[in-house]
Amino acid sequence: MSFPVLTVEDLNVSFKTSKGVVKANEGVSLEVREGEILGLIGETGCGKTTFGKAILRLLSGKVKLEGKIVYRGTDILALPEKEMRRFRGKEIGIMLQNPSACLNPVLSAGRQIAEIYRYHEGMGKKEAEKKAGEMLELVGISSLRKDDYPHQFSGGMLQRVMVAIGLALRPGLLIADEPTKGLDTDTKLQIAELIVGLVRKENASMLLVTHDLELAGRLADRIAVMYAGEIVEIGKAEEVISNPGHPYTCDLLHSLPGKGLKAVSGQIPSLVSPPSGCRYHPRCSCRFEACLQVRPELLKNEGGRFIRCLLSGKEWKTENTADSPIREQPAFSCTEEDMALLKVENLRKYYYSGLFKKEVHRAVDGVSFEVEKGETLGLVGRSGCGKSTLGRTVLRLLEPTSGRVLFDEQDISGFKGSSLKSLGTRMQIIFQNPESCLNPRMKVYDAVAEPLRLHRICERSEERGRVRELIEAVSLSEELLFRYPRELSGGQLQRVAIARVLGMNPEFIVADEPTSMLDPLVQAQILSLLKNLQTEYGISFLFISHDMQVIEWMSDRIAFMEEGKIVGFR
Ligand code: SF4
């Protein structure tokens, strides 16, 4: 067995807030071995990103780190900051999530890579730029693009630039934090395989921090599962995936679309005052009395797997282990009396640019389809194929170049002013990023009440009751009503966005990648919520996603889109 290059022992990461001390990591112990890829998985907010940053002491000075982090004999927590600056990137590289936020928008990609060589290896400008060009080629970007700025790259390309930065100094260990978050399925796999290929070629090790269990299962040698700041399971990847040893791992697996998309209620607990006993007990369907009082230890079982559960070594089955998926057949099926609520005929949306506007980008190119009442039409295709533009053009958020959109037998293509405004309550959109439609200065109550006031949907005296009804419909607790968006999790934000949309009693909703930024358990909750709302209110959906499994689970019919055209239905 290869020796450990990184050993973390009993790591505690905590910081003070107005609500108390947040224990982001508690008693975390693990090792990454030479040439190994260790996947660290868990929901957003479980403490895995904090763990990755703690290894390189990238957390703010107010954060308290206790325990031991040793990399090839060097005690990282004891290194003076000056040496630490040399250590980062050279010994352990890191790829942080969200490249557009990490990269400097006013420096070209090549310059940002070249700066690393100049700082760490003292290279001259020309030599550093040449090395930067080589690094770009290595990650699949032409060196001719080294003078391009971050905004000139697509999401996948930006991620490649991050790979080049993370591996520029050929570190022995790479920490990759959510390297594929938000990318479409094809790009995700390409990027993941690129990183793993380069890491393996250098015989380096990698800590792959991700919420994507399937990705970790495919790429990692071993998997560590984190919940509420603690490691709950560590084992060989294929064993953890095929036979999870902890109920939380099992629930995570069954929340995947391909495994039945079974939602688990509740969320990660507060890390200020986590539940007594086992931290997973409020959500665990296997819990018994002792789980509420006894805090389980992370113990090694006979098969060499580490599991933190009082049932470890015994027979157990979660509610989600049942074989039947939540939804075995479409909730909706067309009958002869069914009418098309939405009819799109030969719709086009072109963008013109260049000298005399001669260059044409055909974002949507002659698309026709229908959506029945109460039906979900899934729209699937790669990033950039025109799905979102189509959704927005159908809703008249974008002006169509030509073609017709008939809603409830009315041609809405020419609607303007008040007729367009009244349409806004009947046709709605749920965005990929809920933060983009929520005012950061508006509390949840006002965010939900705002469209009711704007469209005069109810009397002011009825507003309070209606807001509470909507909050209940999206399964949010009333105590969140007076919180700001920044105080909510990604899943809670998306529920608030859905409550706003529901308030307008829409008949048709474009759901544009509503769960692509969420982790599997939250995704399962939101998709189940949308399905239930559809059954209850008879809403029709155009459901846009790049994830085929999600589309198959949600949709009655599926339309496939490529380069602005619908290329087939199923
Ligand atoms: S200790 Fe109890 S509550 Fe915790 S995971 Fe095991 S069975 Fe569930």
From TrEMBL:
Gene Ontology cellular component annotations, sorted alphabetically: plasma membrane
Keyword terms, alphabetized: ATP-binding, Cell membrane, Ion transport, Membrane, Nucleotide-binding, Translocase, Transport
Membrane topology type: Peripheral membrane protein
Biological process, per Gene Ontology: peptide transport
Intracellular or extracellular location(s): Cell membrane
Highest taxon above the source species: Archaea
Gene Ontology molecular function, alphabetical: ABC-type nickel transporter activity; ATP binding; ATP hydrolysis activity
Reaction catalysis annotation: Ni(2+)(out) + ATP + H2O = Ni(2+)(in) + ADP + phosphate + H(+)
ABC transporter domain location: 8-253, 342-570
Annotated Gene3D superfamilies: P-loop containing nucleotide triphosphate hydrolases
Keyword match Transmembrane helix: no
Keyword Acetylation: no
Quaternary organization: The complex is composed of two ATP-binding proteins (NikD and NikE), two transmembrane proteins (NikB and NikC) and a solute-binding protein (NikA).
Protein name (database record): Nickel import system ATP-binding protein NikD
Species annotation: Methanosarcina mazei Tuc01
